[in-house]
Write a structure and sequence with these properties.
Blueprint lengths: L50 H6 L12 H7 L4 E2 L21 E8 L12 E9 L6 E5 L5 E4 L10 E4 L2 H7 L4 H17 L5 E6 H11 L2 E5 L3 E9 L2 E4 H7 L4 E5 L2 E5 L1 H9 L7 H20 L8 H12 L2 E4 L5 H7 L8 E4 L19 H11 L3 H7 L9
Parallel strand pairs: 1-13, 2-7, 4-14
Antiparallel strand pairs: 2-3, 3-4, 5-6, 7-13, 8-12, 9-10, 9-11
Helix pairs in contact: 2-10, 3-4, 5-7, 5-9, 7-8, 11-12
Protein name: LytR family transcriptional regulator
Keywords: Membrane, Transmembrane, Transmembrane helix
Family: Belongs to the LytR/CpsA/Psr (LCP) family.
């Protein structure tokens, strides 16, 4: 199915507004009208599976486009699809289902456990993925789980609306038969009301199943900023176990501690570190940076060691992702959606932070309010002027690499 082309044409000038090198902001270029053609990347085209899967596979593993859309369509056929946006998708006036302009995705991470009811889960990881109209860069912005939000009424679950932490929106939408689709729809609507941003697509990632994706990659290189005791896992006879399971053994338990420094982590270890917020000076803000670091690490690892140039390895990676992912690409087929992002790689991923990466004064770590600069950043996303905004406000760049 051909993709509509109702949005403004994308610029091919790498200096056009909207693009900024990771962690090193440079002045935006003269505009989008230049006739310059972008130089080819050194990595082959078929070894570039997009950042949509870069961020979507943990919103990620930074996959790169492999071969034709037919190959992509076959490889992604196992991924569950659903209506995750409801009426928070982009209107026709905002571009509708066209992918010619900027692309915004809502990425929601849930940490569902087998013993929990399916409709009693909050989304503690909330990330906006923004790709400017140039389609050659991508930005990740984490919204703090404790942000106070006005959650609108939601007929599907019978929720009457109210003020709560933003992560409660998912739970409120999922109850009474709303399901995870309802949870995502209410979250998307809440964020749209708060920031003005409408979405082209969305994804729900179940962290419990996401370990398989990292295992398919082998390991990922993570840098731990300080010794971090795990709030969830302990060693028993040399084996890392969930605390609840470890207690059942009746054997001595030693807390898992993620030691300061850089190392290759297996799936369980990388995910456990990315889950931690206790014992960290900035709590959920530090966790956000650790999660963003994991996304970048997965994107880099996926582009190494022939992972993306080997169809067998790539298929294994996508199958692992399909078990932990629900995806909504609007009215656009997945293969069109992914192929549109073929110019984006893991190295083009810029991670951003709200509120300077720390709690607002007197927030008391219970309810958080997004400051004026953060709200300006969301406005820049909506207007596709994020590159210029970052150049003028480099403090929004995440310092974690």
């Amino acid at each position: 199915m051909p993709v509509q082309t109702s949005r403004r044409p994308q610029s091919l000038d790498p200096g056009a507004p909207g693009r900024v090198p990771p962690f090193t902001p440079t002045p935006p270029g003269p505009g989008s009208g230049g006739g310059k053609k972008r130089s080819r990347r050194k990595d082959p085209l078929w070894a570039r599976l997009t950042l949509i899967f870069g961020a979507v596979l943990m919103m990620t593993s930074g996959l790169a486009i492999v071969g034709s859309k037919a190959v992509i369509g076959q490889a992604t056929s196992s991924i569950d699809q659903g209506n995750l946006l409801g009426d928070a998708g982009k209107t026709d006036a905002e571009g509708g289902s066209s992918l010619k302009g900027p692309i915004d995705m809502l990425l929601l991470g849930v940490d569902a456990r087998q013993r929990w009811a399916a409709d009693d889960v909050r989304s503690d990881t909330i990330i906006i993925l923004h790709i400017p109209a140039t389609h050659d860069q991508a930005y990740l912005i984490s919204i703090p789980r404790d942000t106070e939000a006005q959650i609108p009424p939601f007929k599907k679950s019978g929720y009457q609306g109210g003020t709560d932490k933003i992560n409660a929106a998912f739970q409120a939408g999922a109850r009474n038969g709303g399901g995870w689709e309802g949870g995502a729809q209410l979250m998307a609507k809440t964020i749209k009301n708060m920031t003005g941003i409408s979405f082209d697509g969305a994804a729900i990632i179940n962290f419990g199943g996401f370990k398989n994706v990292i295992d398919a990659l082998g390991t990922v290189r993570i840098c731990v900023s300080q010794d971090t005791p795990s709030h969830h896992m302990s060693w028993v006879d040399g084996k890392a176990m969930w605390n609840a399971d470890a207690k059942k053994t009746g054997k001595p338990m030693t807390p898992v501690v993620h030691k300061k420094g850089c190392k290759e982590m297996e799936g369980w270890e990388a995910l456990d570190y990315a889950r931690q917020r206790y014992h960290l000076p900035n709590s959920d803000y530090d966790r956000q940076q650790n999660q963003q670091q994991l996304i970048k690490a997965m994107a880099k690892k996926a582009s190494q060691e022939g992972m993306l140039t080997n169809p067998i390895k790539l298929n294994k990676l996508i199958q692992a992702a399909g078990k932990s992912l629900i995806l909504d690409t609007g009215n656009v087929p997945i293969d069109d959606f992914i192929f549109t992002m073929k110019g984006v790689s893991g190295n083009d991923l810029v991670t951003l932070r709200t509120n300077g990466g720390t709690y607002s004064p007197n927030a008391n770590h219970t309810r958080e309010t997004l400051n004026a600069l953060s709200m300006e950043m969301f406005k820049a996303v909506k207007e596709d002027k994020l590159g210029e905004f970052i150049y003028a406000n480099p403090s929004v760049l995440s310092t974690r690499k």
